[in-house]
Amino acid sequence: MTLPDVTTVTRRNRRRAPSIFKGTLRFLITAATTFLGLLAVTFFIGRVVPIDPALAIVGDRAPAHVVERVREELGLNLPLYHQFWIYIKQALTGDFGTSVLTTNPVMTDIARVFPATIELATIGTLIGAVIGVPLGVLAAVKRGSIADQIVRIIGLIGYSVPIFWLGLLSLVVFYAKLRWVAYPGRIDIAYEYTFTSVTGFFLVDAIWQGEWEVVWDLFRHIILPGCLLGYFSLAYISRMTRSFMLTELSQEYVVAARAKGLSETRIIWFHALRNAAVPLITVIALSYAGLLEGSVLTETIFSWPGLGLYITNSLQNADMNAVLGGTLVIGMVFVAINLFSDLLYRTLDPRTRR
Q: Which residues form a coiled coil (predicted)?
């Protein structure tokens, strides 16, 4: 490399450094602002709902002076802005209070139940992506055909049918009638007290320990709710894949590739799908985040001991610390995945960096 070339590269890097710094700073400001807004929403929801945290702790029949003392200990007698400032400081340290239902710190309970939700959402996303992407490609390539209509109907049903109704129907068919899957829950009672989980991810631990009987039992429990979530993820991913592929197949580079004599298979899978994969990764990431936050009904129907069931039980017992803590964690995970997918999109697509 000659001296003028080195000088040009150096000047280009100097001009790029402030842009990278500004982009990083903008990303951090966006994340901090979103997190603060999420804290504000959860805080004011906790103050608007007609549930007194003090009464939830001491009970409805407690004397008035006991209730008042508990309110002072919780800081509920302070001005609202002061309560919000305390709430922010506690949230930044991971302190969401103590659960009335379990008498454990809320963060301890969340760390115990959240791996089950992650495991279920991961299975659902894998099913949705592995099946949804090929279906979307097929629908785009066969646009207007019977195959396209079938794929669109599958997606329409996935968007329209209530998940609780489909979950109950699947339990009646596959568990009560056909006996193809295990009863609701995460693990059989025969293994519940003999199997030791290290990470909280039962499938990973069972495979790592070589407990193949436990792996099969875990599979029989997770396959039905996982397929249910996977179907709803499939409906979204296949629809977006079809849209992206229709856009790519109408581009000029596809016409040029066909003029060069490239096979249709190579054009579709190695050129069009490769360009559509950049926004598709963002779609799959957001679908995964949606399953993490939207599996409450699924976990309730299948008695899956995840964060959704934990929030449901806490809400039924007026345990607002647990409800708000779980809601905040789900919100933070969704925001984090959203920001990560946006960052990944900018990394994979150079056109968005300008």
A: none
Average confidence (pLDDT) over 4-10:
52
Per-residue pLDDT at 3 exceeds 50: no
* 228 three-state secondary structure: helix
Please give the structure tokens belonging to residue 2: 């000659």
286 contacts 338 by C-beta, under 8 angstroms = yes
Lowest mean pLDDT among 132-136, 283-287, 341-345: 341-345
Q: 94-149, pLDDT tens digit by residue?
A: 888 888 788 888 899 999 999 999 999 999 999 999 999 999 999 999 998 999 99
Helix, strand, or coil (residue 105): strand
Calpha distance 232→236 (Å, rounded): 7
- Number of helices followed by number of strands (H, E) in the chain: 16, 0
pLDDT at residue 7 is higher than 60: no
Q: Which two tokens stand for residue 154?
A: 């599958």
Q: How far apart are CA 188 and CA 222, in angstroms?
A: 11
Three-state SS sequence of 250-285: CCHHHHHHHHCCCCHHHHHHHHHHHHHHHHHHHHHH
User: What ranges make up the beta strands (E) of the chain?
Assistant: none
Q: Cα separation of 73 and 37, whole Å? A: 26
Stated pTM of the model: 0.83
Residue (of 323, 311, 313, 308) closest to 51 by Cα position: 323
CA dihedral angle for residue 26, residue 29, residue 34, residue 39, rounded to 10 degrees: 170
Residue 80 corresponds to which amino acid?
Answer: L
Phi, psi of 98 (to 5 degrees): -110, 140
Total residues found in the chain within this entry: 354
| Token pair 């789900």 in the structure block, residue | 330
Distance from C-alpha of 349 to C-alpha of 145, rounded to nearest angstrom: 32
**Cβ atoms within 10 A of the Cβ of 48, count?**
8
Q: 333-338: list long-range contacts, CB under 8 Å, 24+ apart.
A: 333/289, 333/292, 333/293, 334/289, 334/290, 334/292, 334/293, 335/31, 335/34, 335/35, 335/38, 337/285, 337/286, 337/288, 337/289, 337/292, 338/285, 338/286, 338/289
Could you give the CA distance from residue 280 to residue 51 in angstroms, rounded to a whole number? 42
205 or 8, which is more confident? Answer: 205
Q: Rounded to an integer, what distance in angstroms lies between the CA atom of residue 322 and that of residue 318?
A: 9
